[in-house]
Amino acid sequence: QVRLLESGGGLVQAGGSLRLSCAASGRTFSVSVMGWFRQAPGKEREFVAAIGPASLYKNYAVSVKGRFTISRDNAKNTLYLQMNSLKPEDTASYYCNRNPPQQSDWGQGTQVTVSA
Q1: What does the DSSP 8-state code read for residue 23?
Q2: I need a surface site. Which of 8, 13, 68, 116 has the fewest CB within 10 A?
Q3: Is the previous residue joined to 100 through a cis bond, with omega within 30 degrees of 0?
Q4: β-pairing, 34-39 with 92-98?
């Protein structure tokens, strides 16, 4: 099991930026495909972005492509999500996990709220 701790969320105006971080414990981070996911109130959790172990592979949901950038630092066991040009529809709790996600690894998430 991997322990994941998300941070960096907050309240931002539309058009603004935030950078999320995910600190991971355990020895499997550097060899795992990692992803960001989000869940808005009343909606199912959805995929946002994923990155391969060596950062050579990156994949984004259509809704965030061109605005969000996923990255990682394997030396620090940390995953990042740079979010630019934020929109009110990006409001959600954001979570990191392996991709595909492991049910036992979900953390508390970090809340992102974008005001119009």
Answers
A1: E
A2: 116
A3: yes
A4: antiparallel
Best CA proximity match to 31, nearest among 2, 69, 9: 2
Residue with tokens 């119009």: 116
pLDDT at 27: 86
Using CA atoms, how far apart are residues 9 and 93, in angstroms rounded to an integer?
8
Distance CA 40, CA 24 (A): 23
pLDDT tens readout for residues 34-93: 999 999 999 999 999 999 999 999 999 999 999 999 999 999 999 999 999 999 999 999
* Max CA distance (Å), the chain: 41
